[in-house]
Automatic annotation (TrEMBL):
<feature type="transmembrane region" description="Helical">
    <location>
        <begin position="185"/>
        <end position="206"/>
    </location>
</feature>
<comment type="similarity">
    <text>Belongs to the peptidase M48A family.</text>
</comment>
<feature type="transmembrane region" description="Helical">
    <location>
        <begin position="66"/>
        <end position="88"/>
    </location>
</feature>
<feature type="transmembrane region" description="Helical">
    <location>
        <begin position="337"/>
        <end position="358"/>
    </location>
</feature>
<feature type="transmembrane region" description="Helical">
    <location>
        <begin position="12"/>
        <end position="30"/>
    </location>
</feature>
<feature type="binding site">
    <location>
        <position position="285"/>
    </location>
    <ligand>
        <name>Zn(2+)</name>
    </ligand>
</feature>
<keyword id="KW-1133">Transmembrane helix</keyword>
<feature type="binding site">
    <location>
        <position position="363"/>
    </location>
    <ligand>
        <name>Zn(2+)</name>
    </ligand>
</feature>
<keyword id="KW-0812">Transmembrane</keyword>
<dbReference type="InterPro" id="IPR001915">
    <property type="entry name" value="Peptidase_M48"/>
</dbReference>
<keyword id="KW-0378">Hydrolase</keyword>
<dbReference type="Pfam" id="PF16491">
    <property type="entry name" value="Peptidase_M48_N"/>
</dbReference>
<keyword id="KW-0862">Zinc</keyword>
<comment type="function">
    <text>Proteolytically removes the C-terminal three residues of farnesylated proteins.</text>
</comment>
<feature type="transmembrane region" description="Helical">
    <location>
        <begin position="297"/>
        <end position="317"/>
    </location>
</feature>
<keyword id="KW-0645">Protease</keyword>
<feature type="transmembrane region" description="Helical">
    <location>
        <begin position="160"/>
        <end position="179"/>
    </location>
</feature>
Length: 428
């Protein structure tokens, strides 16, 4: 791979990859956008939704697509400009100069200042889009519940967390790569995996409460959920309701925790909109991911991706041509990682597609497993989730393949009906 790439200018290769990826995304977005222009409800959807809900879903999805296309185009132009005019090397050089002014000459310190500067730029250009999405797009369709004060507070907390979490992992990663030598990729993989596990552990207890309030679920809902958990032997220890409605009208449910200490979290919007049988069907689906070890598989897949990334990066880390082609005078670990990420774009796209394939397969398996638990309200629950969230109801196959981690609503309904028919035949 490296021998082939060395025949070309690395910057030109990266630009080609980025432009090709952007053009491909525009193409599949266009394919999907045509579906949003359909105003007459298709026959296969008439049993799921009505004309009014279908029209609202189509308009919401179309507006989201337009917004996403404009924001991604802006980001694309921003990235291309930074590359074409050597702005990234300029930021790195300024970071070096700043550190030297204070009497230091340390790559880790320079790298952290550089990363903070890049993150600051990204936040500045992204802020207007975040504001518009929250207070105009989501507001228009009745989903936004966020106040301007809460929006500002969230942004401040998010940026503080970004600094607190990024600096340690960035510093540790640079140190490990420089210390470990030829086989650094093994140590880097272990470091990132360990950091991910720590983050998963501390997020529910220390980070999530910074944004939302969690209170124990009591009464009939708790009794029904614990009865289901006992029935299927799901190790639920606590059930929480989160006040998601103070930000959005969207619905969700999930569980977290390692081993035999699982805690269930329900959005208050979900509790409000769903009956107890529907709620139990949603949770049966989530429990099924646990019994089918889907989370473990996804973590393994992610480690495979990181392993290939760090391993291949080892062939480029000290390649002076890579740095020179992008306008850098000398190698630096964090810069090498950033530049190689651009060269790795085709594999990123391929890996994302493969992950979507497995993720959709896991969703089918979880649906089937939930039906075997005896949950009979899975279809009504899924329909309510989609309709209330105004999710897209007509989906282009290529768009779905590249973007959807879940099968479409119609695909899931068809599969569930087939499984129900099979289970019914076995029980006769």
């Amino acid at each position: 791979m490296k021998a082939f790439l060395e025949n070309f200018n690395y910057l030109h290769i990266a630009l080609t990859f980025l432009i090709s990826e952007f053009a491909f995304k525009l193409y599949i977005n266009y394919r999907q956008f045509k579906n949003y222009k359909i105003r007459v409800i298709p026959e296969q959807l008439k049993s799921i939704t009505n004309e009014k809900e279908f029209e609202h879903s189509q308009k919401y999805s179309a507006d989201k697509m337009i917004f996403k296309t404009i924001s991604s185009t802006y980001g694309f132009i921003f990235n291309i400009t930074f590359l074409a005019y050597n702005i990234i090397p300029m930021i790195w050089n300024k970071s070096e100069m700043l550190v030297k002014e204070f009497g230091y000459d340390n790559e880790i310190i320079v790298s952290n200042i550089f990363i903070m500067a890049i993150l600051m730029f990204n936040n500045i250009i992204g802020l207007p889009f975040d504001y518009y999405e929250t207070f105009f797009l989501e507001e228009k369709y009745g989903f936004n519940k966020t106040t301007k004060f809460l929006f500002i507070k969230d942004k401040i907390i998010q940026n503080l967390l970004l600094v607190v979490l990024t600096i340690p992992i960035c510093s540790a990663l640079i140190f490990v790569i420089q210390w470990a030598g030829e086989h650094f990729w093994i140590y880097a993989l272990g470091l990132v995996f360990g950091f991910s596990m720590v983050l998963i552990t501390i997020y529910p207890t220390f980070i999530a409460p910074l944004f939302n309030k969690y209170k124990p679920v009591e009464g009939e809902i708790k009794d029904a959920i614990m009865e289901l958990a006992d029935k299927v032997k799901f190790p639920a220890t606590k059930i929480y309701e989160v006040d998601s409605s103070k930000r959005s009208g969207h619905m969700n449910a999930y569980f977290y925790g390692f081993f035999k200490n699982k805690r269930i979290v329900l959005y208050d919007t979900l509790i409000k909109e769903m009956s107890i049988p529907e709620l139990l069907s949603v949770l049966a689906h989530e429990f099924s991911h646990y019994f089918c070890n889907h989370t473990t598989y996804l973590i393994i897949f992610q480690q495979i991706y990181l392993a290939q990334f760090f391993y291949l990066f080892g062939f480029f880390i000290n390649d002076s041509k890579l740095y020179n082609d992008f306008g850098f005078s000398q190698p630096a670990t964090i810069i090498g990682l950033l530049l190689f990420q651009m060269l790795n774009t085709p594999f990123d796209t391929l890996f994302s597609f493969i992950m979507n394939v497995f993720s959709r397969k896991f969703e089918y398996q979880a649906d089937e497993h939930a039906l075997k638990f005896g949950c009979e309200h899975l279809i009504p629950a899924l329909v309510k989730l989609h309709v209330k969230d105004r999710a897209a109801l007509i989906v282009d196959p290529l768009y779905s393949a590249m973007h959807y981690t879940h099968p479409t609503l119609l695909e899931r309904i068809d599969y569930i009906k087939k499984v129900e028919k099979t289970l019914s035949a076995k029980n006769k």
